[in-house]
Task: structure prediction
Amino acid sequence: MAAKSSSHPVTLIPGDGIGPEVVNAVKEVLAAAEVPIVWEERYAGAEVFKKGVGSGVLPETVESIRRTKCALKGPLETPVGYGEKSANVTLRKYFETYGNIRPVRELPGIRTPYSGRGIDFVVVRENVEDLYAGIEYLQTPGVAQALKIVTRKGSEKICRLAFELARAEGRKKVTCATKANILKITEGLFKRVFEEVSKDYPEIASDHQIVDNCAHQMVMRPEQFDVVVMTNMNGDILSDLASALIGGLGFAPSANLGEDAAIFEAVHGSAPQIAGKDMANPTALLSSAVLMLRHLGELKAAQTVENALLVTMEEGKVLTADMAGGGREPSGTKAYAKEVIKNLGAAPKSFPRREHKLLKMPVVSHAPTLVKAADRRPMGVDVFVETDMSPGVLGPKIEAAVRGLPLKLAQISNRGAKVYPNELGVESDPVDCARLRFKMTREGDALTDAVVMEVLSRVSSYAVWVHVEKLNKFDGQPAFTKDAGED
Ligand code: NAD
Result:
């Protein structure tokens, strides 16, 4: 975290749709609060895509963030279509902002079905790995595949960040939510690392919930949560669910934290339907600016701005359209910002104060190899093939083709279910991508590249191979999952 200094340079990205309007509200409120910030306005998003920049982010924007190490951004539109990456994801990847922090706290004056329950937790979402590494393939024209990347290093960084955040905010418990019961290797790694890391924070309680149960619990009893840490996609989905508990997207702030830069933004998108109409609720971006001020060490200014925002909501004299209701007249974004400015210096009556300390970013080794296996044994190889041949016909052909090699065909599977040999007579609805699992005839024998290539060459007489995975045992543990129906 940056130390407190006399003036903070911050990159400001107005963004698309309602972005410039809510960004403007933040600029005005922070100026009125006399926060020492020097904005560097830079661009990313729709207009940049239109200029033909495929990443959606201008080089000068990247250069500015590299220098300031801190950015506040409006929402960026992602063109729907083939090939182009999201500018948001690009920024996260450029600056390895691996930690997405989304506070979820009941707000005064904002009526929801949960009002009075005292919801107050933080979702900590891993932000760069998992399915959002964005590695996808069509294996055949009709079979798509995405790689879910979960690493020891990425999991350790985010789990430590969750515990550090608990410490900085005086929170008592960190819950890890995973799908480790099904995805034993990827989500399982995340859970194991969480359990390991939790031992370094003995004063903070820790528990684990299966993520589907966690979704259920968040709706049934959200007040039980304090900090919840998750892999990227689970965190993406559940943090949006969580923001609905406290009033919706207009109120949900977020921080994207990395070792070299931090990017603060509202959770919501560019809301094109209301863009340019002075209708957007700037609370989410103002709350994101509060997170930014804490990050910059401006704890007092953060409190002043947050208090003004809370008083504005508590009094409810000036509301944007998404907050109005029950016969109350909505005002615009500009009037709302003016009211927040008027309330600078006031404190809310009903909102319990939370003490914040500076968040300590965890230090995790940058070595590419964090885990070494003392013993590594080849078990075989999986060859994915494009074929519409029935497994009962293909199986014997492949068995015969690899005869004489130190590998034999153990089974064929289709979409993760064993279809050959089909001892149980399982009915399946196959697709034209099958997995041939070859196992070493004698465990412990070496598996040379020449043998793998010979397998591929012989397989190609019957089917087109599209993807190969080596099967290993690391320290006695299989480094691959079994198929449904595999012994
Ligand atoms: P959205 O968040 O823009 O809108 C969803 C709904 O919430 C709409 O009804 C909208 O009017 C309302 N809403 C959102 N923010 C509001 C605010 N501050 N005040 C009042 N009402 C608000 O989501 P979407 O429609 O799915 O996405 C629109 C565009 O934004 C897409 O191009 C999407 O890719 C992009 N997007 C960007 C980000 C980001 O930059 N981080 C996040 C989400 C979506």
